[in-house]
Design a protein that fits this description.
By secondary structure, this protein is α+β, with helices and mostly antiparallel strands. Helices cover 24% and strands 31% of the residues. It is built from three helices and eight strands.
């Protein structure tokens, strides 16, 4: 009865507005997990990665084990990217680093993925959330975020999974 009275009072246009409002309230979806950071993705070949990196940053240092450090030219959220390559010259990880003192925009953990589906490691003040991204039942990459602020991240990584039977390098 109440709904009929409201709909008669508002007319068809009002009922559409109410339906849209109800849909917006109930249809909140979690963000899709990122496939790249600033156009750099796990598995990307080195030449394509170097081209993109030179567009957005400047190489600061190179290290085959720990990764190459790039300072970003003009990004409001991140100051640096660290990238490392595997034996086939493909990206094995990309990590964005935040300078909390100079960041113009802060990135919330929840902007990266649904925190309810993440593996959580919280030991105050440290907060870490990890998601495994799979295709065809196999992990394709891992998304990890870390920070000492309960809301905002300071480190954001995409990492190639370690292959079974292949020891991790120390």
């Amino acid at each position: 009865m109440f709904n009929k009275t409201i709909l008669r009072t508002l007319g068809l246009g009002g009922s559409i507005v109410i339906i849209l409002m109800m849909t917006q309230c109930t249809a909140r979806t979690a963000p899709a997990l990122p496939k790249d950071i600033l156009g750099i993705s796990v598995g990307m070949n080195k030449d394509a990665a170097q081209k993109r990196l030179s567009e957005i940053g400047e190489l600061q240092s190179e290290d085959r084990e720990t990764g190459n450090l790039w300072q970003l030219k003009d990004d409001a959220r991140f100051r640096n990217l660290v990238v490392a390559y595997d034996a086939e010259n493909r990206i094995k990880f990309v990590t964005a680093l935040v300078d909390e003192k100079t960041a113009k925009e802060r990135v919330r953990f929840s902007e990266i993925g649904d925190l309810d589906t993440a593996k959580k490691e919280v030991v105050a003040p440290n907060h870490r959330y990890t998601w495994e991204v799979a295709a065809d039942g196999k992990p394709t990459y891992t998304v990890s975020v870390y920070g000492t602020n309960p809301e905002h991240l300071t480190i954001f990584s995409l990492t190639k999974p370690v292959e079974p039977g292949v020891p991790a390098k120390k």
